[in-house]
Amino acid sequence: MLSSMENYTIKEQIGKGGQATVHIVERQLDNKQFVLKKVECFDESEANKAFKEAEALRDLQHVYVSGYNEFFVLWEKQDSSVYICILMDYYPEGTLDTMLEKYRQKNGVIQEQQVKFWLGQIVEALVYVHKKKIIHRDLRPTNIFMTEDGTLCVGDFGVDTIMGDAVTCTRATAASMNYMAPEAATEGYTEKSDVWSLGCVLFELVTAWMYSRKDAIDKLQEVRANPAVLDEVFEDISKHYSDALIKSLASMLKVNSQQRTTPIGKKLVAMAMKNNMQDDKIQISGCKVLNSLLVGADVEDAIFLPEVLAVNHTNNVEVQLAAASLLVSLAANSVAGEVIGHLGGVQDVLTALRTHSNNVQICTVCLNALWGLTVHGNNVKLATEGGAIKEVCNVLKIHMNSSEVAEAACAAVLAMSLDEENLAVICDLDGVGLLVSAIGTHGSNAKVVKNACLALASLNIMGPCDKALEKLRKVKRPVVPPTPSPDMLKSTTQKTVEA
């Protein structure tokens, strides 16, 4: 196999361990920088086998996963060695380990919301790769990369052929061994061995204020021999972290793999929210964290949300805003949207609209949520029964000068027009007149005009709304001069010459 190394220039070596060296390289074509990992193989057949396994990692496409860009097998004559070369994205901001060291140097506590934010992203990444039948095999802070906006990307996946010797410890680096599940040495790597490694990462996050990297690793080694050691640690970290988070950590660091939890995505945050329904700060933080993690919504994400939105915090503007924003994201999934409707989420959105009708932000978000929810299942009927058209028209009338409210309200009217029972109500409330006014007020806003026109077309307007149609005819439209054709230009030029 021909080497692709000729396409890259090595800039510097940034790591070395076991059978691998890591370099920053620059692609000659466009000067873009990458990380190149060279792993020595026993022979060419092993290198080719590893290459085929690594091919699956090239297809990984997820916001929290850093897959591999290119692979090639390299033969170096000077030392008669065969290497598999893996090209990965370069992250100038460093790794999660870089961030951990910053906290450790100042004995700083990483706030629980931030821990959950990062933990959720790593879990989402693991759930994704595990569904692809891929095990990470080498999850640790130095293999979790930090992006410019502070989110994480899990990368540097271990390849079975070249990681397999970790079982006999002939190739594994000390760093890899520190995070390797107790059973991996005898049973090999599984999804649950990744969960142990995730538990080790979480352990470092919640103990950064009290342990150095070495102390944290030493303590984790003690846990392997005596799991009861964790009880003392939990007592210390309970000063800063909730019982729900500590229980999650305990479930990941079960020495017996049969007792160890498997990644359950957003449920980690949902569990904390359910256990603290009266705490508005936890609800706000939880909604924001979940919203940042909604790469794909599923039914479990929606189950507890109506409680958050309506029962305990109806008058809390920040909770309503955070929860309604999350509902907008969840409504993108039809199954989740139907579940929200069954659990009373549509009525809760309408309650929020009534309670906070003077708040532009809440009205905008709730109208978008209503729009998203009413296209699923029986939700449009539920909205009709709850008097949604009245609330939408009222909010549009109050905030007619807000393009955001107008855009969302016109879309909500369009969605509500799917139920014929709403047609007469819309006319009775001068809904058509409001749509026409939205066009007149925001004539230069393409989204408002589009949504309003679609709603008007959907209504199939008849008798009672003739006055509204007359309003539409009177809307002033900008006069746009026609674009001169080549013949017009030629004719004009000739007349000018003749003159």
Automatic annotation (TrEMBL):
Signal peptide per UniProt: none
Pfam families, alphabetized: Pkinase
InterPro entries: ARM-like, ARM-type_fold, Kinase-like_dom_sf, Prot_kinase_dom, Tyr_kinase_AS, Tyr_kinase_cat_dom
Ranges annotated as biased composition (Polar residues): 490-499
Keyword Kinase on entry: yes
Disordered: annotated span: 477-499
Catalytic reaction list: L-seryl-[protein] + ATP = O-phospho-L-seryl-[protein] + ADP + H(+); L-threonyl-[protein] + ATP = O-phospho-L-threonyl-[protein] + ADP + H(+)
Class of enzymatic activity (EC top level): transferase
UniProt KW keywords: ATP-binding, Kinase, Nucleotide-binding, Serine/threonine-protein kinase, Transferase
Domain Protein kinase: 8-273
E.C. number: 2.7.11.1
Keyword Cell inner membrane in record: no
UniProt xrefs under PANTHER family: SERINE/THREONINE PROTEIN KINASE, SERINE_THREONINE KINASE LIKE DOMAIN CONTAINING 1
Protein name, UniProt field: non-specific serine/threonine protein kinase
Organism: Mya arenaria (Soft-shell clam)
